[in-house]
Amino acid sequence: MIHCFEGKAIEVVVRRKRKRRSTLQNSYYWGVVLPIITNALFDFDPENGKDSGITHQWLKERYLPKVLDVVPSVNLPNGEIVKGIYTTTKITTSQFMDYLMFVIQWAAEFGIIVPDPDTDYWKELELIDIDKK
Question: Would strands 81-83 and 73-75 be described as parallel, antiparallel, or unpaired?
């Protein structure tokens, strides 16, 4: 593979490997956090209140910028660069924990109580969360 770079300037980046958001975190978010918040929002917006996808879009646009170091961008085929397309699929386990904290805290401010995950969730998460900042 190196031979394809012969005669060209290259850049090598070395950084610590970070764990992506875990399956347990995702299950807790989509199985507990989002349904509780979505059901509570139904009282305020019956048209969209039962759609966890809409709730997820709104929450990630509001709170992912608080946990990410950079604003993500996408290069479109026409050369246009679109900034601010946030996704939870590429964030680390600790970034996702921070995101969950913001979301749950926001919900609590409106009287929406989201239960903590069971203890097995936290035990498993401690084993895989190696990406402390």
Answer: antiparallel
